[in-house]
Amino acid sequence: MYIILLGAPGAGKGTQAARVVQELKLVHIASGDLFRQALEQGTELAVQARSYMEKGMLLPDEITIRMVLERISAPDCRSGVVFDGFPRNLAQAEALDKALTEQGKALDKVVYIKVSEKELLRRLSGRWICRQCQAPYHSVNSPPRVWGKCDRCGGDLYQRPDDTVETVKKRLGVYFTETAPLIDYYTRAGKLLEIDGEGSVDEVGRRMLKSLRRELVRQGER
Length: 222
Ligand code: AMP
Fold this sequence. Notes:
- With 222 residues, the protein is an alpha/beta fold.
- It has a single domain (2-116, 179-221), classed as Rossmann fold.
- The chain has nine helices and eight strands.
- It has helices at residues 13-24, 31-41, 44-55, 61-72, 90-102, 117-125, 165-179, 181-188, 201-221; strands at 2-6, 27-30, 81-84, 109-114, 127-130, 136-138, 157-158, 192-196.
- Strands 2-3-1-4-8 form a five-stranded parallel beta sheet, sandwiched between helices. The chain has a three-stranded antiparallel beta sheet with strand order 6-5-7.
- Helix 4 runs parallel beside helix 5.
- The two termini are 16 Å apart.
- The mean pLDDT is 93.
- It binds adenosine monophosphate (AMP).
- Residues 9, 31-32, 35, 52-53, 56-59, 64, 85-86, 88, 92, 162, 171 line the site of adenosine monophosphate.
């Protein structure tokens, strides 16, 4: 099963991906996490990735597509994947379609998590992430039990350097020009499932899993 979580930065893709992965026994692939891992490990990719990420810009498609396609060819991805943050433009969407078709596979559903711009800005400015397991927190909405420490693994929490107001605005701009057209692309392909992404993490999670399960059953009956 191949599912994409589509939405602006701050829509809750990472948070909700963790639920979908657990419920449907899939592998979570977040392109942003793959790039951040490269930064931590100081790989060759890190040098290029850093300058783009600091500016809130997308990395070149060639690099991104190669990295994600390599990741999905690993044995643990055989039973299926939840993509988060990929694809982020038309070229990446087409490359993913092509790669899946070549393997006799196809996307099952694209869940579009819709959140207003005002709410996105509010969420991103209070976001804290675990350095170790990437679990997301929010200083107001979902604070950790012990300030600065991850509830799940005890790792240190940090604010992403690209979550500053200026970079957030830039990232949202990139989303609206480059990524938002994918809503149309996947609607035309009959794959889009729109979910209201406002409300508590639990509310959105329940709403999403309910619709997703219903859609997958309906699709299976066709
Ligand atoms: P994210 O964690 O998804 O918000 O991604 C953080 C940053 O990583 C983005 O602002 C981009 O610089 C880079 N990035 C992540 N995913 C992609 C992608 N699919 N295409 C290009 N750049 C990406």
